[in-house]
Design brief:
Order of helices and strands: HEHEEEHEHEHHHEEEHHEEEEEE
Strand content: 15-25%
Strand order of the largest sheet: 4-3-2-1-5-6
Number of strands: 15
Structural class: alpha/beta
Number of helices: 9
Length: 379
C-alpha cells in the first residue's frame, strides 16, 4: 500500500479518511490493497488511512503476527468493547470516511461491507461514502504488468491458432468441446501460463449460453464455434479473448457477427474520442455505445450481459471499472493504467456470437493489446 498515494487521492476527493475493513476475507478489495491475500485472518481488522497524518491498524491480539509491517500506529484489541472503543477513538472523529461500499449495492463488486458494520459506524456519527474512485488508483498496471499481460495475450494467440488448426484437421470426425479445451490448456501449460478456470469451447446452440459448461458435444455442419480463453503469468494480470468460427454457417449468423463487430468497434471508438476530448469515459458510457448498435440492428432482446469487464490479477474479472449499464450502472471512470475487455455479444439461439478484445488505457489513449477479429473464421 502506497500511503502517500492514498492520502493524495483522499485529499483530492476531500474525504478525511479511508477505512479498510474485513472479516474472514469478506473484503477482498481491502486484502488486495494491503497485500494480505492468502494470509490466515480469522478475526476482523480495520486499517485507517487519514487524509493527513499517521495510519492506524486496529488488529486482534492473536493476529498481530499475521500482518505485514504496515506503517502507522497499531491498536490491539481482544474484546468487542475494545474494538468498538478503538473505532470511536480513532475513526469517529473524522466524521466522514470512505469504505468498500456502494449506495444501494449498485455495483456489487464494491459492496463488501456488511450492513451491521455500516450501522455501527453510522451510529458513531460517521458518514460512509464509497471508496470506488480512490480504489481505482490501486487497480492500475505498471509497465511490467502491461508487458506480462502482452505475453499472456501472445499465449492466447498461439493457443487459438493451435485450437482452430486442431478442429480443421478433424472435420471428418469433429473433436468434442472437451478435446479442444484440452488442446488449449496444453498450450498454456507449455508456456507457463495459468488460469482460474479452463477455457470455454461451445458449438452451435451451446454458444447461445455465455457461461456454457464444456462437454462432449461435437461440431456439426452449419454451426458456429465460440472459443473464450483467458490466462496470465503467475504474478501478472489476465488476458481474455473470445474468437468466433463457423462451419458453413448461415447468412443470419454472418449478419449477427457483423453487428457484434460493429458494436465492439463503436465502444472502442467512443473511448478514443473521450480521450481526445481530454475526459475520462465512464464504464456505463462504453456499454451504451455498444448496445446502441445492437439495439438499432433489432437484436437488443438477445443481449444477456454487459459489454466488458476490468482485467484483474487474481481473477479474470477484476474489481475495477466495468463496461456496464445493463447489469449495473457503473459510473466509475476508465482511468489511465486500467486494463479491460470490450466483448459485446448476442445470443438469439440456436447460436450465439461474441467478440472480445483487450484494451490498456494510456494517458494518450487506448491500446488494443490482443488481436482484433475482423471476419468470422471459416472452418
Amino acid at each position: 500500500m502506497d500511503i502517500a498515494k492514498a492520502q493524495q487521492a483522499l485529499q483530492e476527493a476531500r474525504i478525511p479518511g479511508w477505512l479498510l475493513y474485513s472479516f474472514q476475507g469478506s473484503n477482498v478489495l481491502a486484502l488486495e490493497a494491503l497485500g494480505l491475500r492468502g494470509r490466515m485472518l480469522s478475526r476482523r481488522f480495520a486499517y485507517l488511512i487519514p487524509a493527513q497524518g499517521e495510519p492506524v491498524l486496529i488488529v486482534h491480539a492473536i493476529e498481530k503476527t499475521s500482518f505485514p509491517d504496515l506503517p502507522g500506529q497499531w491498536v490491539v484489541f481482544s474484546s468487542w468493547e475494545q474494538f468498538s472503543r478503538a473505532l470511536q477513538t480513532h475513526v469517529a472523529p473524522l466524521g466522514r470516511i470512505a469504505m468498500e461500499y456502494h449506495p444501494g449495492g449498485g455495483i456489487p463488486y464494491l459492496s463488501r461491507i456488511d450492513a451491521g458494520t455500516l450501522e455501527l459506524l453510522r451510529g458513531m456519527g460517521l458518514e460512509v461514502v464509497s471508496s470506488a474512485e480512490i480504489l481505482l488508483q490501486f487497480q492500475t498496471w505498471t509497465p511490467a504488468d502491461l508487458a506480462s499481460h502482452k505475453r499472456a495475450a501472445a499465449g492466447i494467440a498461439a493457443a487459438l491458432e493451435h485450437a482452430l488448426g486442431f478442429v480443421r484437421a478433424r472435420l471428418d470426425q469433429p473433436p468434442s468441446e472437451l478435446e479442444v479445451q484440452a488442446e488449449i490448456s496444453k498450450v498454456f501449460e507449455a508456456k507457463g501460463l495459468v488460469f482460474d478456470h479452463p477455457p470455454m469451447v461451445a458449438y452451435g446452440p451451446n454458444a447461445a449460453n455465455p457461461h456454457h459448461t464444456v462437454g462432449e458435444s461435437r461440431l456439426e455442419r452449419g454451426q458456429v464455434l465460440l472459443i473464450d480463453l483467458w490466462c496470465k503469468e503467475p504474478e501478472g494480470p489476465y488476458a481474455d479473448v473470445t474468437w468466433m468460427a463457423g462451419w458453413e454457417v448461415s447468412d443470419e449468423v454472418h449478419k449477427a457477427w457483423s453487428v457484434v463487430r460493429e458494436a465492439r468497434d463503436s465502444a472502442l471508438e467512443f473511448c478514443r474520442q473521450a480521450q481526445t476530448q481530454k475526459r475520462q469515459p465512464k464504464g456505463f458510457e462504453l456499454d451504451r455505445a455498444a448496445r446502441e448498435v445492437i439495439e438499432q440492428a433489432g437484436l437488443g432482446a438477445h443481449i444477456l450481459h454487459r459489454t466488458g469487464h476490468h482485467l484483474g490479477f487474481s481473477a479474470t474479472h477484476g474489481n475495477g471499472t466495468h463496461l456496464d449499464d445493463l447489469e449495473t450502472h457503473d459510473t466509475r471512470p476508465l482511468i489511465p493504467g486500467l486494463g479491460f475487455t470490450i466483448e459485446p455479444g448476442v445470443y438469439p439461439g440456436p447460436f450465439g456470437i461474441r467478440s472480445e478484445i483487450n484494451v490498456y488505457l494510456h494517458a494518450s489513449g487506448p491500446e488494443v493489446t490482443t488481436a482484433i477479429q475482423t471476419e468470422m473464421e471459416r472452418l
